[in-house]
Specification:
3 helices; mainly beta; four-stranded antiparallel β-sheet; Wall-associated receptor kinase galacturonan-binding domain-containing protein; six-stranded antiparallel β-sheet
């Protein structure tokens, strides 16, 4: 399918531009790297609630201990980190899976993982999109026949559900080629080359009194956790330890900039991927 539209928001459109946002929460957390400043609870040092990596030269934020995995963050939302996974047949599977699951985030079940060279007995499927779209012609590790997909569980119900790390690793694949994210924003769609990591903050709700709190019950592998989000008409991250929620002046919410961060919205920039 040529000219497929990917709703991969540009990172710069959602990073907080003001130092005020970086001042919330952990006082010793380093939230700035080069020209980028991250919103609470994210940062670049070990003192931050959710630590991410930064490549100053490339101007990118990434997940995992090394930039070479190519797990680049393109957007932050009150619910998820949106990653861009350029098709790469040399991306190491086990190292990538280890980086995608942490104490504070995990791949949502809205994702399918595009993988290569898996065990014959693995419970994986043929991809709905042609393997040609995911092949890296500069790599000798991928062929049309080796591309498969680890799809979301069919028994998921509405709510907060994640891919199961143990089940993913049991596929015994060699490469994580790319990913496909399923979105129902503005109508059902497939986002090729994108992966959503749902994130959370450990502990009971610590949200601004005017924020909405989403709770994650404790599981065998994760303690109790939560997310905060300011309702429409208020701006901020919603966290007591962050910027909380503030009134938005009507002048900031006229039609010309209604979809700006000043109105509690995030601008989505459509990118075109053509073969």
């Amino acid at each position: 399918m040529r000219g497929a539209v990917l709703l991969l928001p540009l990172l710069a459109a959602v990073l907080l531009p003001a130092a005020a946002a970086a001042g919330g929460g952990n006082g010793s957390c380093v939230r700035s790297c080069g020209g980028m400043t991250l919103p609470y609870p994210f940062g670049f040092s070990s003192d931050c609630t959710i630590r991410l990596g930064c490549d100053v030269g490339a101007g990118v934020v990434f997940v995992g201990g090394t930039r070479e995995l190519g797990l680049v963050v393109r957007n932050f939302t009150p619910r998820a980190l949106i990653l861009k996974l350029q098709p790469n047949c040399s991306r190491l599977f086990n190292a990538s899976v280890a980086a995608l699951f942490s104490d504070s985030y995990a791949p949502a079940s809205r994702n399918a993982l595009v993988v290569s060279s898996c065990a014959e007995a693995a419970q994986i499927s043929n991809c709905s999109s042609s393997p040609e779209r995911f092949l890296d012609r500069n790599s000798s590790h991928c062929t049309d026949e080796s591309i498969r997909c680890i799809v979301p569980p069919t028994n998921s119900t509405r709510g907060h559900h994640f891919l199961n790390k143990s089940e993913v690793l049991r596929s015994n694949c060699t490469g994580l080629v790319s990913a496909v994210s399923y979105s129902d924003a503005g109508g059902p769609s497939l986002l090729l080359g994108a992966l959503e990591l749902d994130w959370w903050v450990p502990g009971p709700c610590r949200c601004d009194a005017r924020a909405n709190c989403t709770q994650f019950p404790a599981t065998r592998t994760r303690p109790e956790a939560f997310q905060c989000e300011c309702p429409e008409g208020l701006e901020g991250d919603g966290f007591v330890e962050g910027t909380g929620c503030r009134e938005v002046s009507k002048s900031k919410c006229d039609r010309s900039n209604y979809l700006s961060r000043d109105c509690g919205k995030i601008v989505l920039v459509g990118l075109i991927m053509a073969e």
